[in-house]
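Hi there, hope your week has been kind to you so far. Would you mind checking whether the tokens look sensible for this chain? I owe you a coffee for this, so here goes:
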Amino acid sequence: MAQPLLIHSLSYFLVVLVMMLMTRTRLMRVEALPSLAKDTCKSTCGGVAIPFPFGIAEGCCLNSWFQVDCRVDNRSAADRYDPTETPFLRTLNVEIFQISVEDSKLQVRSPIMTWNCGDTVNKSEAHVNLDGSPFFYSQTANSLTMVGSFNTFVEMKDQHNKTTSWCTPDCDESSSSSSSDYGDGSPIASSCYGSGLDCCQSPLPPNLQHFSLGLGSIADANKTNCTIAFLVYQQYPLTYLGPDSTENLPVVLDWDLYNVTAASLGIREDSTVSCGMKTRLTHVDGSFYKNSSLQCLCRTGYGNPYLPHGCVGNVSLSFYHLYGSLHSLY
């Protein structure tokens, strides 16, 4: 009897010891987690993480271009315990959905045009000007998209009134193209990701900051069905898209850090972080300019590479994931 009891007690002791070690590891991991925001700065707004170089107050962001307003919508307070917080990029007055420091991208609300959509007021034009800002509509992440009647089209023009992208919902290889000094001018197919909608998509020119969008009709405009046009993140599902679901369409902006060095941010390259300069060709007033901007990456793990000691290495992550895996067994 004594031997089984001893084995049972020893097994119990080992289980308790392992759990204590895992708990200590978890605490160490939580303590080691760096904040994505600067010290003493609010790191979220309405459930959206606000990492540096963005920030909710002066002193929390790199400069005024990256300042975020955390706005409170008191109209929703009747349905909630607390009013709803919504992050807006102050300089562009645009709502923020997501910020990524991993690939220097920002998801914001997309400008939308509508025509003949029930009680919705017709809005057949949109104008955007980000000149002078560090923000660009991502060529690789977005598409110019139109959903609706086959006898309509959407057209994008640059600041010189030159067509740079267009499409019409015929969904064949001749129904859309991106043609300008920025692109190769070759048409593309308009698959709309198999959404089953009468729609078309066209690529954007690179380094896009200044443009206008216009809806047009090939036939009598009064005979067209509800039509909407917008720039949208390519991975956004269009299957259930309709005039009532266009308020939250995301579009992706690239962001650059000009006149900034790793040293000026207090970052020292080591085994966890690396920094370099990337070049972007921008088009302003008919001329092209090369601008260099800082880009930093966490070599291992994750975190915010734009803050001193902002990256977490694989060792800590391994302990954390090990704890999570073992903890689920108990």
